Amino acid sequence: MKTANHTEVRGFVFQGFSNFREHQLILFAVFLTLYLLTLAGNVIIVTIIRVDHHLHTPMYFFLSVLSTSETCYSLVIIPRMLSGLVGLSQSISLVGCGTQLFFFLGFAITNCLLLAVMGFDRYVAICNPLRYPIVMNWRACTILASSVCASGFLLSLVQAVAIFRLPFYRKNHTWVSEFTFQGFSSFHEHQLGLFVVFLALYVVTLAGNVVIVTVISVDRHLHTPMYFFLSMLSASETIYTLVIIPKMLCNLVGLSQPISLAGCATQMFFFITLAINNCFLLTAMGYDRYVAICNPLRYSVIMNKRVCVQLVGGACGIGLIVATTQVTSVFRLPFCATKVAHFFCDIRPVMKLSCVDTSVNETLTVIISVLVILVPMGLVFISYILIVSTILKIPSAQGRKKAFATCASHLTVVVVHYGCASVAYLKPKSENTRDQDQLISVTYTVITPLLNPVVYTLRNKEVKDALLRATGRKLS
């Protein structure tokens, strides 16, 4: 616990163009015009590149990504600047400022790196024209674009966290600057045993998911939409566990350290982003199985590479938007207590530390939970109703068995994943005790990520065959 006798600064005010007060209306008109031209131009570029198959080349792929990034970049800054020019509120919360800084830096760095990648593309096209289709293939372009985006936002995160770890205050008020996890204090005599169990499960989870991603990447037999989604899910689950479990393990062996407000917000942001990303990836996998079984002749057309990338990007985008909304709403609250009755910065335990009524935040959390849990879960089960009805029409018993087998692994993961999420976030907040809530949380933070490597390796013949090929053993 760390408090100080200061007035806590919970927001900033932009001075903006206050030195040009008499010209602000003109500046508003000029900047609004430029902004609308920028938005319209970038939207036109992205749309034309998308619909015209002559522009489906690496050069225009990178240009469309750059235009999309530039559009988001301008959205982060200019609307607020325009509202300030016409006399609307110039204030911004600490979390809002941190969020704006994070996205500003993320998109700015991404744009710089994208321009470098576009330079490399032109170099290959002109200096190695015969090898251009091989060097700049679809997979290479996707990896370059994804790496650039990941690098930009990782550097942005480091910078934003470094800045917002600094104290911003005035004197004469108690200011909470960090939290402490209570963790598994109710199981004090069993903490060493819990550490050993959770560490073993964590190592198996990490190893299993890394093996799945590696095998799918190197074995060409698994370069299909189904396994592309599986590799994305395994990668997401790996990062998801990295956000939570290492700190939990440290707390279990007495290495507990307080976590700053910025650190807590960061952990919550990535936890929510990846958890929602996993929900919608499972939905995309359900849709993939629906198309494969109910429309097998059109499968390769419907589930082409572009659609697969768009589905993954959509899942991640929804996660980022929801996480930004949730974290901003939680960390706008004033906090009076410092002990989080949990082992990580989950939404409800952190809200309980607030000094004010959080009923509005609770309502927002329930609404978001319904949208990101029940909606994708409903879509998955609709897919499986259609799948089952199609399978039952298959005349041969062997054909029905094979069709059911391709869905069994995914359905197992879906039931456990959505089941745990529903119990954790859709139940009445006072229904369970703290210990029961923690046990439920352990299920979806430790057990559920283990399901991917276990279910998809032990019950999936294609993955097992790929593992045998990778280790040089003969298939039985």
What is the strand content?
Answer: 5-15%
What do the pLDDT scores average to? 82
Report the strand count.
7
What's the SSE pattern?
A: EEHHEHHHEEHHEHHHEHHHHH
Identify low-pLDDT runs: 1-6
The separation of the N and C termini measures 60 Å
Count of DSSP H/I helices: 15
Structure classification: mainly alpha
What portion of residues is helical? over 70%
Describe the structure.
This protein has 476 residues and is mainly alpha-helical. The protein is 72% helix and 6% strand. The chain has a three-stranded mixed β-sheet with strand order 6-5-7. A two-stranded antiparallel sheet has the order 1-4. Helix 7 runs antiparallel to helix 8, helix 10 runs antiparallel to helix 12 and helix 13 runs antiparallel to helix 14.
Kindly summarize this structure in a few lines:
By secondary structure, the chain is mainly alpha-helical. Helices cover 72% and strands 6% of the residues. It contains 15 helices and 7 strands.
How would you describe this structure in keywords?
476 residues; mainly alpha; 15 helices; 72% helix
Topology:
Layout: E1 3-8, E2 11-13, H1 24-51, H2 58-85, E3 91-93, H3 94-127, H4 132-135, H5 138-164, E4 169-176, E5 178-181, H6 191-218, H7 225-252, E6 259-260, H8 261-294, H9 299-302, H10 305-330, E7 339-340, H11 347-351, H12 359-391, H13 397-426, H14 434-458, H15 461-470
Parallel strand pairs: 5-7
Antiparallel strand pairs: 1-4, 2-3, 5-6
